[in-house]
Structures are given as structure tokens and as C-alpha cells.
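ok so i was messing around last nite and threw this chain in just to see what happens. nothing serious, just curious
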Amino acid sequence: MALGTAQARAARVGIVRPPGASPASTEIVSRLQGELLSVGLEVAFAAPGAVREPDGASARAGLEQLARRQAMDVILDVVGDPPWAVDIWVFDRQSNRPSVARVAVDPRAENASQRLSIRSIDVLRSILIENHLVEARPDVPPAAGPAVPGVTAVARPGRLAIEVGAGLLTSLDGVGPAVLPIVRLRWAAFSRLGVQAELAGFGTRPAVGAAGGSARVSQQYALVGACACGGPGGRLRPTLALAAGALHTVADGDASAPLQAHSADTWSFLLAASAGARLAIGDRLYLAVAVAAQVAQPYVAVRLAEAVAASTGRPNVLVSATVGGWP
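result:
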């Protein structure tokens, strides 16, 4: 399975070994090294401690420093022991901005190490040719080759994630909890940072009551902002988000005679901050939970019999649970 013929300036490739030294990890590292050396590429090795976060995910800053220090074009980060993924980082020497592709396999699959090695070499070959680090041979097709059962290649960052779920929205000033469907879109622009859009509404309508009347309150909102959520990678990741948007609040009154009922329909500017966590399920799916504080301006006050019975948006608290996926 040849990569191609090396250019006059041989590309320099680094391999980050996994923390352990199991037979499976040794096999993968040996296969990768042998294939690279066979086409005249320079190969160097790096210890995992300087380029890996505590959860085992690749640390972008450490890899960038390693690439600059040793003038590397590509770094292969073998993740896990036994290995379940290989991150292929490509560094542009002009801009020094990295791109990364992940090749993953279920470590419980039969011949997992061999499958991961073969698939990683196929993907690496395509990346080297695409970035003009090797020349394509006429007798070797540029495609990544046939898929190996049980192996998936996941590109990151720059991936769109879609989440659906529900949230419990409540005011801290008298408006009870409402259950709202939630749709969330996340674009992982970088390995750790991304853009997030969130829509929620058309849920339950909590009631606010007092002597002589009551009101039912419904709320919908839309938010867009930045998030520290990143793309695929790592089994458990914390998430942070800061967003702004609009809150639509409708209060429908119901009064006993001689009082008269009124309705209010208000749009407000909404600012939200949230913190949570994401748990990966396989390579493409994950569960996410978050707690958010939302502040609206102007906030909405619910008046019953000329007295303020409750208000919403100063602040509201949202607890959400969603299921997400990377298409």
C-alpha cells in the first residue's frame, strides 16, 4: 500500500506515541513508521505528555509548538491504549494553521489494531497528496481506498453538530417551570471553539394566579453566540457558551367579573450564559447537559388586580438535556 513518491524536499512527519506500550500500540506505531520511511519521509517521535490534555484528547497548542520546533509538516497522534484513533494533524508552513482528521475504530472490533493502521495509512496518503507533500503515483488511485468494516474517519475541526432535546425554563420571580423543545446547532470552527445557535419554544405554559384572576405565560427564544465546545474527540468534555438573541413572551389573562382580562405580547433582548458537559457515544453521537442563566431587557411583569404577581427574564434559569450528532 504505497503512499507515492516523495518530493525533492522530503516532508517531515512526527508520531506521538500513546502513553502505554501495549503490543497493539507498538504494532500501529511500527506500521506507520515503516510506511513513511519506505517512501523517503523523515520520521520523528514525541512523548505524549507535552501534547495531550488530561482527558487524553490532543492538545492543539502543544502540537503547534512541536511542529514549529521540529519543522514538522504532519503529526500523527495515536490516541488511547489500546489505540482507538489516530489524529492526523497537517501544518501549513506558511500560515502555521493546522487542520486535523481523525481515523477511529472500535477497540473491541476484531483485528482492531490492524484495521486502524490500514485505514490511517489510506487517509494519510490522501492528505499528503492533497497537500503536495508527496507525488501521486499513476498506478495508485488518489482515493482513500475501500472502507474497512468497523472503522470510521471523522474530520475535525470545522464540523456541524445538530442537537435536539428539551429544557426546563423557570423564572426566579414567580413564573413556574415550562418544558420547551430545544434545537441547537454547533459549528466547531476550531478544535476547542465554535459558534452555537439555539431555538426553543412551543412548550408548556405555566400559570400565575392571584385572587380574581390568573395568566398563562408562554416563552420562545432564539440565541446565537460563541461556545467552547469544539468538534469530535474526547469522551467527556466541558462546554461553555455566551450568546445573545431575542425572547418572545406572551401572557394571556383570565379574570373573574367585574375584572377584565388582558393579554401581553412582548419581544425582549436576551443575553444568556451557560455551562455544561458533553459525553461522547461512539464516534458521531453524544449526550449534552447544560445549565444557563438568561437575562431579558425589558423583562416582562405579570400584573393581576393591578399588582405585580410575577416577572420573567430577570433572570430565567434553563436546565437542558439534548442528544447531538456529527453528520
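not much to say yet. Residues 1-9, 136-158 have pLDDT under 50 and may be disordered.
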